[in-house]
């Protein structure tokens, strides 16, 4: 796991998804101070607004778990909205929990497939831009269900969801090429695009789609140039009620 965190951290800096500027995480998702991933953060800002609106409609939500919290931008904003927030991530460095300096947020180091919490601890579990890093998606979903209280809700956002397994595998091959070129081929082992069948197969949650997501123009153009006409990834926002 140390090697994963080390190389993933290095690439996040290289790609502009991390910054030494202390205002970087505090201004997300509404402003990307690096100016390098404006379109991606614009989508996440839209999804954040949807997420907040959805949470506001849920009765008696108090305890929220942010799984794969990264630098904690989401956890920080939810804490400001007076939720009791716990942020979990495998990265304890300055690109992860080490950069989250908000005393209102409880920070816990852990993994998707083995959440270090007791059963029925949270009202809502949020997995934003993180579920596709699970080695075992079904186990990760089972862990989310375990730590949710009866009637609790799982929120999945900003993970690529493909039309079928073929499209997912092709995307993984492109991801493998990218990580190989970056000198971190092993990272592809933890990157796994999803299909709706992956999410609904275990029958742990009843999902409702808040936003279907969409493919970026750049991604669509590149796909067409490669002669691939099948649909690209969607980055949906899903609310799943625990069954």
Q: Give the name of the CATH architecture.
A: 3-Layer(aba) Sandwich
How far is the first residue's CA from the last residue's CA?
32 Å
The number of helical segments is: 8
CATH hierarchy class name: Alpha Beta
**Secondary-structure-derived class:** alpha/beta
Count of individual domains:
1
Q: What's the mean pLDDT score?
A: 91
Gyration radius from CA atoms, angstroms = 17 Å
CATH topology: Rossmann fold
Instruction: Describe the oligomeric state of these chains in a short phrase.
Output: single chain
Strand content: 15-25%
The CATH homologous superfamily is called Vaccinia Virus protein VP39
**Can you tell me the residue ranges where pLDDT is under 50 for at least 5 consecutive residues?**
none
Overview in brief:
The protein has 243 residues and is of the alpha/beta class.
């Amino acid at each position: 796991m140390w090697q994963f965190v080390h190389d993933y951290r290095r690439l996040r800096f290289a790609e502009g998804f991390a910054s030494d500027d202390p205002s970087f995480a505090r201004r997300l998702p509404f402003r990307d101070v690096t100016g390098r991933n404006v379109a991606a953060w614009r989508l996440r800002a839209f999804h954040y607004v949807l997420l907040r609106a959805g949470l506001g409609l849920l009765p008696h939500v108090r305890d929220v778990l942010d799984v794969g919290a990264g630098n904690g931008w989401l956890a920080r904003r939810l804490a400001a909205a007076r939720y009791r927030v716990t942020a979990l991530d495998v990265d304890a460095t300055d690109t992860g929990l080490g950069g989250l300096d908000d005393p209102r947020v409880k920070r816990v180091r852990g993994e998707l497939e083995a959440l270090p919490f007791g059963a029925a601890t949270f009202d809502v579990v949020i997995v934003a831009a993180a579920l596709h890093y699970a080695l075992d998606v079904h186990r990760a979903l089972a862990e989310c269900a375990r730590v949710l209280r009866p009637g609790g809700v799982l929120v999945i956002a900003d993970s690529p969801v493909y039309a079928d397994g073929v499209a997912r595998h092709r995307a993984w091959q492109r991801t493998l090429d990218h990580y190989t070129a970056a000198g971190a081929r092993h990272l592809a082992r933890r990157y796994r695009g999803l299909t709706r069948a992956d999410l609904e197969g275990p029958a742990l949650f009843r999902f409702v789609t808040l936003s279907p997501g969409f493919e970026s123009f750049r991604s669509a153009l590149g796909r067409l140039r490669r002669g691939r006409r099948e649909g690209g990834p969607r980055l949906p926002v899903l609310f799943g009620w625990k069954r």
